[in-house]
What we know:
It is a single chain. α5 (126-144) packs antiparallel against α11. The longest helix has 21 residues, at 272-292. The chain has a two-stranded antiparallel ribbon. The chain has 343 residues and is mostly helical. It is built from twelve helices and two strands. β1 and β2 form a beta hairpin. The radius of gyration is 24 Å and the shape is globular. 25% of the residues are buried. It starts with a helix and ends in a 24-residue tail after the last helix. Helices cover 39% and strands 2% of the residues. The protein folds into two domains: 67-166 and 326-343, Orthogonal Bundle (Photosynthetic Reaction Center, subunit C, domain 2); 168-319, Photosynthetic Reaction Center, subunit C, domain 2 (Orthogonal Bundle).
Amino acid sequence: xxxxxxxxxxxxxxxxxxxxxxxxxxxxxxxxxxxxxxxxxxxxxxxxxxxxxxxxxxxxxxxxxxxxxxxxxxxxxxxxxxxxxxxxxxxxxxxxxxxxxxxxxxxxxxxxxxxxxxxxxxxxxxxxxxxxxxxxxxxxxxxxxxxxxxxxxxxxxxxxxxxxxxxxxxxxxxxxxxxxxxxxxxxxxxxxxxxxxxxxxxxxxxxxxxxxxxxxxxxxxxxxxxxxxxxxxxxxxxxxxxxxxxxxxxxxxxxxxxxxxxxxxxxxxxxxxxxxxxxxxxxxxxxxxxxxxxxxxxxxxxxxxxxxxxxxxxxxxxxxxxxxxxxxxxxxxxxxxxxxxxx
Length: 343
């Protein structure tokens, strides 16, 4: 073999090894699903082996209702003390839901995670205060945010998945801690951020966009001379891209799941998923402002963020890398008391 042949073989071998050790490379076949007009590159690429394994694991782990629902009998509010939520349920219906919540949130800790087992009416455990509010939030989502969750709805398991603390909560970014001191003032960016795909985009796009209704999520100005307060600038675009990176990773999709590559800003040329996502952003803002942030004083210090803020929800909290949480499993229908707000 000639020297050129050896070099070609060596380069080919090196490239092959690189593909296998590179975490971003996946062996074919990869399924491509076209989501837009031909020629626009609007498609989602799916590894059927990974998706199939994830779906099977998700379905195998989904908790089943503990027993058949019985709505007859005395009301829980009449039988037990201090039932501030769900008191209108029958005794059987109430205990069935409590049993399910234990499996959804604290299967290892049991009832004692939220209750004083010597006195279930006691409110001294912060977890009981928080879980009561979370029940109301779950009802509120299913009753008031059908534009985002549809008929599928949510339960405690959607976020918790058998853990007392959901895996994908978030806190305001403390500017990198010691790293920020080493690098100086980095303007909230210019360091690999986990929320933004390890890019140098602004590392905390969640605080300005999922905690504040006033901040525009905008890249392109539609005005010839935009006013300064519209903040439609390159800097503003970077913050918006940071949020889009978070959403893309949270749902396991690329930009064209919602946007038309011909004109990213144009709603008329976008997919229906963009409207659903818009409602999701509004819902996250609503939940963080109305339910999650106000619970801050109830938490012990070890449950708060580095800046003392309460844990909050983002797209990843429910979706966990999938465009439909739990691959669209409809658990809420088995618990009708979670479908209507009690506030």
